[in-house]
Structure formats: C-alpha cells, structure tokens
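One record is given unchanged without comment:
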Amino acid sequence: MKNEIWKHSIRHLLMVCLLLVGSFWLVSCEDDYIYDDQEPEWLGESIYDYLVEQQRFTNFVRLIDDIGYGEVLARTGSKTLFVADDAAFERFFTDNPWGVGSYQELSLAQKKLIMNFGMIDNAYLLGTLANYNSGGLVEGAAIRRTSALSPFDSIVYESGNILPSSPYWEPYRTSGLYMLTDQTSKPIMYFLQRPLENAAISDADFKLITGVERQNGDAHLFDIKVVEADVTCKNGYVHILEEVMLPPLNMAEHIRSNERTQIFSELLERFSAPYYFSQWDQDYKLVNPDFTDTLFVKGYFSRNAANGPTTYPDGTTVPVDLRLIFNPGNNNYSNGPLQADMATLLAPSDAAMQEYLATGSGAILSERFGSWEGIPDNIVIKFLDRHMRTSFLESVPARFDKMSDGSNNRINITSGDIQNTYLASNGLVYETNAVYPPNDYVSVYAPVLFGANTKIFNWIINRLDYTFYLNSLVSRYSFFVPTDEFFENYIDPFTIGKNVPGALKFKYNESTSNVNAIIHAYDPETNTVGDSIGVVNYGNPNQPNEYNDFILNRLWDILDNHVVVGDVESGSAYSLTKGGTLVKTEGSGMGLKVMGGGDLERDVTVNVTDVYEQENGRTYFIDKPIQPPLRSVYSVLSQNEAFNSFFELLTGFPVNHASEIFVRKTNYYGVDFNVKFFNTYNYTVYVPTNDAVNAAIEAGLIHPWNSSPERPGIIGINEMESQEEQQAAIKELERFLRYHFQDNAVLISGEPVDQLYQTATIKLDDAPSKFGTYKNKYYKVEVSGDGSDLSVEMEGNGVAQVLTENNLFNIITREHVFNANLVVTGKWTDQALAPYITSHELQLLRQW
C-alpha cells in the first residue's frame, strides 16, 4: 500500500513540475515538447470520461448529467468519487428504502443524494483516506470524511401528527413545518485495514456492527464493499462500490423511524425543539426561489454548545441537568476530530422497555409514574445518559466488558443483547433486547429520586453530589429517608447549649426549588416544640453565602447520620452511621424500629413506613428524622451520680495544662466541653464506678486531686509541695484515665465480640506486655462477650466487667463542635445562625 501511495504521489508531483516547465518553454522557446499537446498516458481520462468509456456505469453517468455535474467531473476540481455500476443499480431497483423500481422513478432530490453523498471535494487514494490532519498529520486513524452533500439536499416536511410530543413543537401541531433535521452535512464512514487494526476492531466486531463478513485488506463504506479502488483520473480518483450507497439517517432520526424503538425515541424527542435561523432560511430561498414557507432546523439540547443548542427556541437557557450528553441529530458529531470517531446509541426495543417497567427496579418506576410517558424529564435524562455513548471506538463489542458510563459505573451489555445495528451518519445504533438503567434507578437512592414526598432529601443529595456515594454498587447500605411531611421537629445539636434552644423544620419551596429552614422554640425539659422564631431561606446557589451554607451543612449532617454501611437487619442491635453516630434497630422490614442516640434519650421511636429492596441495599422511608445524640461525654458524666468520682478526676486538671482531658478547643465550641484527643473516630469510654475509683486511689495507683478525711494518709495532687512530684502525679493520673478511652465503639448488641482495641495511653518503655505492645505505641485492651455482656482485659492481668444493670451501659453520646460560642438571648436571626458551622465543614462543603 505504501508503494502504491508513493507512486501516485510521484505522479502528482511530476504533473505539477511538467506544467511549470511547460510554461517556461512556451515563453522562452518554440522547440517541440511532447506534453504540449497531450497528457501523460498514465494520468488517465477525467472522472466523467472514465465512467462514460467503461460503458458499465450508464446509470451513474445519467445521474451526473441530470444533476448538471458533467462539466465539473470532466474538467475541473480535484474529486474523490464512489460509484456503483449498472449491475448494482439493477439490484438497487429491486429492493431499496425509497421504493423506486427504475431509474426513471428517481426524483432529482434522490439523484442529488446519491451523487453528492458519494463525492468528497478532494482527491484521496483509498489508503490516504486513513490519514487526517489535526495540528499535524495523524496516520491510520481516520474512519470518516465530510461528503459533498449539502444540508439543503435533505429538507423534509413533517406534518403535525408526526411531530414530537414535547411542548416546543405544539405551535406547529396543526400546520406542520419544513425542516432540516440537522444543519451539517452527512459524512461518509469507512472501514479500512489500518484504522481497524489501530482501533483493535476485529473482524468479529465488524460482522456484528455491519452484518457482513470481511477479509484482511477489505475496505468498506458503511457495510458496502469497495470492489475496485484507486482508479486514477486527471481530476481525481474513482472507487467502485459493490452496491449503491445512500446517505443514512442520523441516529435520532433512525430510531424515530424504526417501529421497534418508538418508546426510546419518544423519550429522546422530549429534548428536541425547532429553531429558526434567518440566514439558513434566506440561503435556501436564494437557491430555491419557489419556496415561500419557513425553514426550521431541528436541534437537541446539548451540554456542549458546539454540538447542539443550549437554549430553548425563545432564547431562555436550558438547565444543564435537562441537556443531553450530546446532540444525537448532529451529523458531524464527534468526540474529537470528525475523522477520528463518532457516537454510539444503545436503543432498547419497545419490548425491552415495557418488560423493564414490569419487573425488578423498573417496577418502582411503574408504581410511581405508571408508564414511560409519565416519568418526568429530570428522571428520564438519567436513563438517556446511560444509553448515549460519546465514542464509537470505545463501544465496539470487543470493549463491552469494559463499558462504563460517565460516572464510571459498569454497563452490563453483551453481544447477545444486540438485535440489530444501524450505521448512522453520526454514529452506530445498537438496537438491544435489554435496558441498561443508571445506578440512580437501582441503588438505594432510586426511591428518593422517584418519590413524590422525598424532595428535601433529593435536593440535598444532588446539592452535595451524594449520588456518587449512594449509587455505588460495590457497597451495601441501609438508607433511612424521612419523607417531606415528617421532616420537622428535628432537634439540631447546636441548639442545645443556647439560651433559646430551637428545633428545625425543613420545607421544600416549590417556587424556588430550594429548601428553607424554619426555626421553632424548643423546651428540652418538656421536649415540646413551640412557635416559629425565625426562618433561613436558601438563596442563589451561584452566590454562596452563610445562609446557604447553614442549610447545606445541617442537612449534610442529617444525611450522613441516616446512612448505614451494611444491613441493619443482620442481627446486631446497633449500627454505626456514615456520620459516626450509632443507631439502634429492632425488628425487620415494615416492622423495623430505629432510634438514634437522641431518640433513646427522649424515649422516641422512629417507624418505617415503606421498604424498598435495591441492588445495593434497602431504602427505608421513616416517619421522622433519626435524632443523633444530644448529650456529650462531658454532659453524661457530669449528670450521673454513679460517675461522680471518675468525672472529678477528669475535670481536675489545671486549665490549659498539657494533660487536660476536657477542653473548649481553640476557635471551636461545642455544646459544653469536648474530649481533647477525640478526632474523627468513634470511641468507647469505660467508666469505673465510684467504688472502683476509690479502690484505685487507696491502692496507690493514682492520687486524687484533693486530700480527704475519708482517705487519711493519701495526699491530694493539689496539696503536694514538690512541683516535680505534683507533675509526675498529674502525668500518672492522665495515663490512668486515658486508658479508659478506647478507639472504636463497642456495645452489648446481641452479637459476640472478641477483639483487641487501642486505648489512648501510649506505652513508654520496652517492658513486655500482655498484648505485645511496642514502645511509643498505644496500649491495648481485649474486649470479649457473648452478646449479652462484655469483659475488658488489660495489658496487665486485670479483667473488668461491664455492668449491665441500671441502664449504665450502651449510653450513646456525641462530641459537637461549632465555630463560635454565640450566646443567643432573643429571637434567632439569620446573622445569629451562620456562625454555627465549623470552618473545616465549610471548607469541605465548598469543595463539593
């Protein structure tokens, strides 16, 4: 092939040189020159003369003459022409999509389509068609080339009864309209050996895509074989096709005309509209003065402005989430240079679409909306996105096992799913016997997306791009969703330490499509919610402000604490949420009861109203938000007499001392005090009884802060005269206390446990220890139990038993941290609310 290309290139170079030298001699002398009166024999006739002389292209020559293109192909230009012989035309007249039975039945418009679609306005050998320029020569990668077909060659009239059903077409429902299905010309697609090899498209792939067999070295335009290539003429090249080639429809028009893909087409057509462009209308009328109607151009809303419209016909902007990945009606669509790639559509058959609604995850759609026609656009577009492929080369059968969507989620397509294929002007259409629903349709998020009364959770999920988490099919979730009518009386933890405690009621605002927070007075003593005392409105999301941040932050916290990784019906009574809080569950299915730490404090039960079994877990609709713990470790220990001795030890450290355990962190403020070394983990605190603390003091393991007549002979740390002795006692006490704080939450949950955990005390020596802890590592404890009790074995030989009476176990707490110690003395104003978001949370929020 390289030698052939080289010979033809040399011929072109010689032709140019000969013309230049000939001109010189005409001027400088009158000696005879062989090419003054004749052309080189190897150059051949013109394209037109070649076709006439062959006498087997009479139909194609008639077509050229009838169009008035004979002079062009006889004398001028540099053309590439793909032609079919008379035998091919005879076969064409016996079976073709136009229904014509002879040459005489061809209209002028049809003749133009055959002629212009088979012509390229440059001279290309078959081998050089594989190359293209894109800031430099790219060899062996081209699969398409722009044809000479004008968009005006394919004007259609559509009567009102066949126009799409979307509202943008309604004004023309009675009259119909004349329309360009696209305003770009249709390219020719070809399969040549080098591009096929470079793209790793096998002969088996080619067979599935085109329906025809190929041999090594074969060349095809669409599914039509080139039977004779590189016929050299003085004004270009002729390539002879096995059959007559007609311009294909674009992908959108094909599935619209295919009686088997009407449902999918109707979904796609929702995102199309007619557009009037005065220049196109005027240009067409200049060429066709008899045309007095109005010409429109059909466009599909596209996320890429270069590929399709981003505004409605009235000029208003189409929301980004209501635009398609690409315009499937754009003939010139390509994800990169036009020559290098095109698109692919997975178009499920009507039977597959109906079957999906009747079974599996589609049944939720059917239950909620009744039919495909009833599904809202914002939900439909997620389905279309999943079936629209931006690259043909990445969608060939050999790559089916790696096929994924824009969120990098697998599309489980197989070759057995393919019923039919169609090579359109802008891509490949796979007609499939299956649908490929997005993860949004099958994950625990789906019931929220489809729900009529889940707008608040759906809003915050989309504001935070939380779908990437909930849609993961690798993990399994239990997702609790308070429905809109129950999304009130949420006691937000930041309100507890204020002079005017408040409860939040979140409301979805239909007019703004945002969520607002209404603040009500709350009495913690009686657990009653009073009148409204303030409102925080969510404003323009493109102009972030503290009010928006407040609503997003508080709903984010709620959302995190309604997601459990794992199955809450697996047997354990307690589960850890994504937000790090614990929830208690009882029962299963519709009988499931769930309680957060705050619910347990107030003796409130959250009930399940609906259960949805999804691919990655269960979604539970519930009758109120799960209330996280409102109490901190500090408040629990300070308010229970059984913990007095331990609490006194914890709170006796001098303020700002390095060993201090309860602190108000610099620039951060909680409900009360925070445990200094708690960070992003969940913890367990083992609280010794008052008697146990006294026993440790009397045994000399630690010193109390103050001397007491009840403990004669034991000196309190505060009474020690030696500062060195005092500091050593403080350090020893700190290490003793921190050994009671353990990483990871462990509960008496009904499930057995036997595991080592780290404490908050660091080992300072190399002495051997029971659990082999190294120096400068945290001491461990071994926790074991049969599900109804717990034992804690220490690095020494001691074993402590967790008491299971008087409700002094499984007490759930939470450390709350806010970024300002604002004292609210009156009504809550917008300005008073904003500071309750930590700077770290704000930073994370804005990163989303």
Remarks:
- The chain has five domains: 1-41, 44-150+185-247, 254-272+321-442, 451-627+837-847, 633-801.
- The radius of gyration is 39 Å.
- The first strand starts at residue 79 and ends at 84.
